[in-house]
Every structure is written in structure tokens, then in C-alpha cells.
Amino acid sequence: MFSTGTFLLYFGLLIIIPLWASSRVKSTYKKYSKVGASSGMTGAETAQRILHENGIYDVSVEPVKGQLTDHYDPRAKVVRLSEGNYYGRSIAGAAVAAHEVGHAIQDAENYSFLKLRSALVPAAGFGSNASIFFIIGGILLTSQGLMLAGIFLMAAAVLFQVVTLPVEFNASSRAMTQIVSTGIIRNEEERETKKVLNAAALTYVASALVAVLELTRFIWMYFAMDE
User: Cys bridge to 156: 44, 85, 121, 123, which one at CB 3.0-4.6 A?
Assistant: First the structure.
């Protein structure tokens, strides 16, 4: 079994990694949401321009309440931007809007990892909710069968997290290409824009890392049941 020191270090990492990533993205976003983009375009205008530049006219852009609630809904064909980004004219807003449109471009091009992630949603959702019950049942009843079932369910959720990484990094790469090529930001603004996109990517990396650590721990516990 884990020693006390290892146990505390492990759970410390599970807590610290997500908190650090969340703090990083919030502070970076807050900083660059106060820096105006030279184009003077709102996030909504940025999104619409990139969509049209790529020949995409069946995707709408809408405001949504909250902060950092921005997302692309492939079923409704809607890019939803938090109100601050939708109406704002900052570098952060332009970066976030371009990133979400990057997902719309992926959808239009049938990007393979986006299709795979969408296909994994049902299994990942069920696995994320149900796995812990099987795992706890396996531990309490000393049942390797229940434990293994829980591990497989959790693996589906972890796979979703891992597949999300190339989807998000690709969307950010597309975002940088689009806002530079369309003149939405100038060359001297690229560094700040990349900081916003990289900080956002950290949250996905942190989530995937924590998910892999948890899965690894339960796999180790499963094999330890034989001892």
C-alpha cells in the first residue's frame, strides 16, 4: 500500500494541479481582458469574420452568461461566447472567440479527434458517474470483478479527457493562424494572444493528468488485491 508520505503527496497533487491551472487561466484572462485588440473588433465580430473567411455560414454566434463559459455546440451549430468576450474588444476576447470558432472549423472539416470525442461522450458520461460506485463496491466487498468493471468505466472517462487534448490544442493552433491571417491582431500582439490560449490549454492538461493519476491508482489497487 501507499506510505503515508506518498499518500499525502498524491492527494496533494490531485488538489494542487487543478487549482494551479485554474488560477493561471483566470489571472491571464483577467490581465488580457483589459488590453484592447488593435483591430477594435468585439469577440462576436471576430468569430463572425473567421467563420465567413472559412466559408462557414450555418454557425451562429450568441452571448452566454457567466465568465469563461465560452464553448462551441456542434449539435446546435452555435458558438457561444461569455458576455464579456461577446461584447468586449480585448485581446483575451479575440483569442477565446477564435479558439471556439476553431472548433466550428474542426466540425466543418470532420476533424477526426473531434468526431472521436463526440462519439465518446455517452460512454464517458456514464463512466464518470458510475465508475466510483463499482470501485468502492469492489473495495468494500473485496471483489476484483466489481473493481475491474469500475476501472473499465473510469478508463472510458479518462480516454475522453486524453482525446480532448489534441482537439483543444488544434483549435488553439487554428485560432492563432486565423486571427493573424485575417489581421484581427497585429504581429506584436501574437505573444499576448498565445499566453491566453496556452493558459486555457493548461486546464485541459491538468484535468487529463489528474484523471490518469486516479486511474493508475485504482489499477494498482486492483492488482494489489491479489497479494
Answer: 123
